[in-house]
Amino acid sequence: MVGTRVVKVSGHELDDPAWLSTFARGVASGPRTIVVHGGGKQINALSARLGLPVVKINGLRVTTPEVAEAVQMVLCGPVRSRLVAALRAAGLEAVGISGADGGLLEARITDADLGRVGEVVRVAPALLESLIAGGFTPVVAPVCADQTGPLNVNADEAATALALALAVKELLFISDVPGVLVDGVPQASLVAREVEGRIAAGDVKDGMAVKLRCAVRALQGGVAVVRIGDLRALTDPLAGTRLLSGAAHPA
After folding, report:
1. What is 4-244's CATH superfamily?
2. How many other CB atoms sit within 10 Å of the CB of residue 203?
3. Which residues form the catalytic set?
4. Tens of pLDDT along 117-139?
């Protein structure tokens, strides 16, 4: 969709009203935006209250049926509601949906070790296209479902799938770090072919490794601009770490 961007926001800072307000204003000041959100911090908190284990493999949450229900409660409940309220306060007509709504995201379990974690296999963008055409800002919780119950879909992977299906120009991964850190130093750019080497060397790991692999997939799939950064990346086109397809680094 020409003139539309996908912004994936980490859930880590969404409990901070000031951070959330700044995020919402940054979204409102830019082009039409589809927001995809995480909520790992909040899911961990609810899991602890319910006595559920928090286990991750390569940055992805191991999801039992009970954990899948906790994920659904958090992402389709307080986290999404908080985001929608902040965006509306910034002047946007935000509306919350999930991957299951309108068949937006179809996912299936591909790794038994991760439990009820879904990998996106199909995107049906009609609902998003209708919302954007109507002047709404969609806020997507990356939760899908099959006949057994909810499926937990990694938010970075959901955002990437949507960016590719909608052929957007830009995909942003926004969190509380200024970009990809190597030896504590934010990188202005990374070449796509370097990513697996950086991961293998331990320069990046866990959640950031997931983001980088998603970023490479988006770039290779035709998304022109893919960046990882903090709130500044919403309004400053040079902020954050930009993924490049070739060896040349931008001036």
Report:
1. Acetylglutamate kinase-like (3.40.1160.10)
2. 19
3. 8, 11, 40, 156, 211
4. 999 999 999 999 999 999 999 99
